Amino acid sequence: MALLISYSSLTVHISCSASSQNTFSSPSILKKLKFPRFWPWQKVKIGPLSVSPMGFGTWAWGNQLLWGYQESMDNELQQIFNLSLENGINLFDTADSYGTGKLNGQSEKLLGKFISEFPVLLLEFQGNKQVRDNIVIATKFAAYPWRITPNQFVNACKSSLERTQLEQIGIGQLHWSTANYAPLQERALWDGLVAMYDKGLVRAVGVSNYGPKQLLKIHDYLKARGVPLCSAQVQFSLLSIGEDQIEIKNICDSLGIRVIAYSPLGLGMLTGKYSPTNLPSGPRGILFRQILPGLEPLLNSLRQIAQKRRKTISQVAINWCIGKGTIPIPGVKSIKQAEDNLDALGWQLNSDELLQLDYAALESPRKMVQNIFQTR
Ligand SMILES: NC(=O)c1ccc[n+]([C@@H]2O[C@H](COP(=O)([O-])OP(=O)(O)OC[C@H]3O[C@@H](n4cnc5c(N)ncnc54)[C@H](OP(=O)(O)O)[C@@H]3O)[C@@H](O)[C@H]2O)c1
After folding, report:
1. Residue with the nearest Cα to atom 28 of ligand 1?
2. Which residues contact 97 (CB under 8 A, 6 or more apart)?
3. Nearest CA-CA partner of 342 in 78, 125, 52
4. What is the DSSP letter of 368?
5. For the chain, first and last CA: distance in Å?
6. Which label site among 101, 310, 328, 363 has the fewest CB atoms less than 10 Å from its CB?
7. Which of 145, 199, 147, 193 is nearest to 171 (CA)?
8. Would the CB of 55 count as within 6 Å of ligand 1?
9. Which of 69, 98, 197, 262 is catalytic?
10. Is any ligand 1 atom within 6 A of the Cβ of residue 152?
11. The model's pTM
12. Is-contact 124 34, C-beta < 8 A?
């Protein structure tokens, strides 16, 4: 992949001679000064929280089945976390169900470890010890069939707090609604969210995989209980955009709810690195085999714009989500991917480019499969 230079990725190297050491008390920390990826006023409000225009998703951090996680990756994942913070990313999405088998909760645990081990020297250098305090962990509570009382959700939240070693979760989100298959359980989820907010265990509350109808219902219910619904996480990308996503976005805009776009890279299909003859191993390969053959028009448009902009396909796909007014949370598994995705910030597709991509997405014969937990 070509190295692309944008103003946001320029790095200023400062050599520290003996004399300059008199000027700077910690010269080693000043090895690299970077232009910010985005300016403070470009931060986005989620209720009382202020977050970067893009967050990172951590589903892969502990998931062996779909994402091929191994504990040997932890060192690199920690570097990704540190790099993200150094570049102003302060939103990390996770869930209490992330991590396969024995590794259940691994994503939350790793985040907890990485937060607590984030280099203090760096915090001092940035003159902002609040970097750590400003981290927003957005976790999701699974609507497991055995979680049938509000208190069980409060306990789930306490377990997430333990794993993340935090006193408060940034955004506590319901992972999915049970309205489709266990409507009676739904009230326990909602009351659980109210209880964890009232107890101060979460700073803000959100939902995930709620469709337009359920979204309105829970919004009204929470409002009546004095709890603002701050975010709605939904599968949102050039591969999943459809009437539902547009309706959800419109509802959220009218109610002051922030849309968090998950799987913004279509699980990797919108990076341009996979093709019908180059598929990932495991279950993703089966899915991609069905979708990728129809994706050429969309990938061509992405490629065209990427070349013109001197960006990568992934950066354009992520930037499209931002252009649509959402906060994308691409998943990252390597430093290279994190660096690449960071350069989705600091610039913006224009309206013609957004439109070209909208049309190309419409022309794609196959879309991503809808999350089975997504409701109407
Ligand atoms: N609420 C929900 O129900 C729900 C559902 C799904 C996801 N999410 C959240 O959304 C986050 C993101 O979604 P996702 O992880 O499903 O999919 P995604 O962001 O669409 O794709 C992420 C994957 O694409 C590849 N990739 C990422 N950046 C790349 C780059 N610059 N170049 C090349 N390859 C790159 C990596 O996988 P490979 O290298 O293996 O290809 C990475 O794991 C998750 O981590 C999770 O936090 C929430």
Report:
1. 337
2. 104, 140, 142, 144, 175
3. 52
4. P
5. 40
6. 101
7. 193
8. no
9. 98
10. no
11. 0.91
12. no
